[in-house]
User: Fold this.
Amino acid sequence: MLSRTADHLFWMSRYTERAENTARMLDVNYQTSLLPQSTAVAQVGWKGLLSISELSAAYESKYGDVNARDVMDFMVRDEKNSSSIISCLKNARENARAVRGTLTTEVWETQNQTYLEIFRMLRNGDFERDPGQFFEWVKFRSHLSRGVTVGTMLQDEALYFMRLGTFLERADNTARLVDVKFHAVQSDFYGAASVKDQEYDFYHWSAILRSVSAFEIYRRVYRNVIKPERVAELLILRADMPRSLAASLQEVVSNLAKVTDDQSCETVRRAGKLNADLQYARIDEILATGLHAYLTQFLDRVNELGAHISRDFLVPATA
Assistant:
């Protein structure tokens, strides 16, 4: 496959997944902001979201003070923000258009319709009327895109590069989503929350679990009260949890193996080592060094892996 084609397919899927995960991060902060809390505590949560998304400087240069309305506006409808939901869906559609002949009609029409529909919704004020419902719509369109892709695309290199993009982006964003919660408490987490803190934090942890469709899964796996260390274990180490870091890296390794060549041995090694580290890790060992520190290191390694994938497969050769 031409590297330029692979690049468009990879980034089409990454942008679609990024839009969904941005919606998930915004939704968990929005739902948490509806709980009884001081203005200062709420502001810390929104600042943490901007920080984790590496958008603090861009936001402050445009809006100044951090508040829920402006942060959501910046991350939903600001086309100058390349990580906003509207920008992600626009970029996904443009990448799909560039390789229209490689995609099935259903995949193209899903991407194109999503792009057209979000402009209509924003113009008609659907987002302002019900942010929660809008975020659900973004998630649904991402689910639809993945389902149509798996259900209609030939299982060849095109599909493998699309799934590589999806799961690499998911690993990155799940790590960021988990870290947003710990930014909100203004400290790293070492697994020593008091009973009082756990009781106070129940709704916050419920919100983050629901944001990754994991609330029912948590109840089924642990059959107990929601505890921060178990939430961390579920979203990081449980390979049977679809949006966990472990599950995402397994998919990255699996799809990478299907497109690998003699030039990509180092990329395969890095992916395999990161996957093995997750397979054999224990949550108590992770918490002993601090969850924020662990997630920061994980994000660095995922970004390095993405750079190696781009170097080996995606960047077109220059003349």
Summary: The chain has a mean pLDDT of 88.
